[in-house]
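pinging the channel bc i need a second pair of eyes. not urgent but kinda urgent?? the chain im working w is below, pasted from the shared doc
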Amino acid sequence: MAHGGPPMRQRLFVGLLALVMLSACGGSAAPVFNQTSQGLETGGGTAAAAESAAGGTAGVAAPVSELQQQTNLSGEQNAGAPNAQAPVQRLVIRTANLQLLVEKVDDAEVQVRRLADTRGGYVLSSQASGEESERRATVELKVPAQRFDEVIAELSKIAIKVEGLDVKGQDVTDEYVDLESRLRNLRAVEARLQQFLNEAKRIEDLLQINQQLGEIQGQIEEAQGRITYLKQSAALSTITVSLYSDAVVSLVPEESWSPVTTARAAAKNLIVFGQGLADLGIVLAVWAPFWLPFLIATLWIRRRLRRPGPTASVAQP
């Protein structure tokens, strides 16, 4: 009965060794792989004991040296896979902010929407405010990246004048390549955990391995979601268009003149003037210890200088 224990333990040990070597290529996923290996090592011993107690003799495990050679070969192939791939096309997320002076904002907004549709894009959001000459609108577009420059050139033709243009780009190629490499390693670990799950006999082992498998699958979904987001963001560029027209200043007096409005404006100016005088009085009172003695001394000196001196008496013959 003890004869079936050591081969099973050796198989699990070699499998864990392969798992650790594969996880070495995974970068950020390494801590999770270490946790998985610790949990599986304990479960492996339990599964071996259960198999031995049941008297089952599963197939004889392959020699340790042969499995180690297979593990090393798998690790070398996985490490060399990124270098063997063709050069990855650069992924750049491009955005632009465009400020356009137009004759009529509403007409220009319709042209912007039509331009987005004809170039394979769509309007993500739009806002408008004001009336007539004070009308303003902001339209956010999503257009194919390969037509980014073309759309900006077409938008410039709608305007009387291009008041501002700000184009930015974010290169996410390195992040994309890292995510692809991490995803490959996570899938390799998922396959190994699935194999361990199929070989486990005890309920405790099944639960423990299944928990680790769920964590790995969650990381796979997260990496896949991020990769999809980067691809879509690079494939569709964002252009924010601000539209407005010149405010025309009329030389004709407004017909809606009201004496009440004029009186209110005058009262407001009077209040402002009174507040200014009050502020001046407060400032003078605070600074009185400095300027008041100087003023008193100046007045006293002037008074002394203006006082007439004594007149000499003239003797009479």
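so Strands lie at 92-101, 122-129, 136-144, 161-171, 236-244. and Confidence is low (pLDDT under 50) at residues 1-6, 24-84, 248-254. — does that match what u expected or am i reading it wrong
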